[in-house]
Amino acid sequence: MQLDDDLAEEVAPGSGGVQGLQTKLLRMQNAKTAQDNEEAVDEALMETVVHLAQCDVPYSMVKEMGQQEYQARLHTAQAKVTLSLIPLSEIQVPCHAKVGPF
User: Which terminal residue of the chain has fewer beta carbons within 10 Å of its beta carbon, N or C?
Assistant: First the structure.
């Protein structure tokens, strides 16, 4: 099957043919790369701060931040419609397991 303007319009309506589809895909890839780079920089900065800040962190603070990060990722996955309602309800049940002796 050859990619032509008709197929490009069928795959991505309103793309404007093969050239438009290529442009759209390139923009999407560039946006994803930029987001990945930003996340990598954020992670590297956070790791640097963690190594510089040598202190004891209360368990309640770690737990709160972990729950916030978990909820943020859950909402992101939900927004991308990658989770159905059944698994979503299963993973929203709070976990009461102890992480460590804090």
Answer: N
**Which pair of tokens denotes residue 39?**
């996340």
For residue 67, CA distances in Å to 39, 91, 94 come to 19, 12, 9
Q: Which two tokens stand for residue 42?
A: 């954020």
Residue 98: its pLDDT value, please?
46
pLDDT tens profile 9-35: 888 888 888 888 889 889 999 999 999
What is the span of the domain harbouring residue 80? 57-102
Q: What is the 3-state secondary structure (H, E, C) of 37-91?
A: HHHHHHHHHHHHHHHHCCCCCCHHHHHHHHHHHHHHHHHHHHHCCCCCHHHHHHH
CA dihedral of 29, 43, 72, 12, whole degrees rounded to 10: 0
6 with 47, same domain: the answer is yes
**How many domains in the chain?**
2
Residue 60's nearest CA partner among 8, 14, 99 is: 99
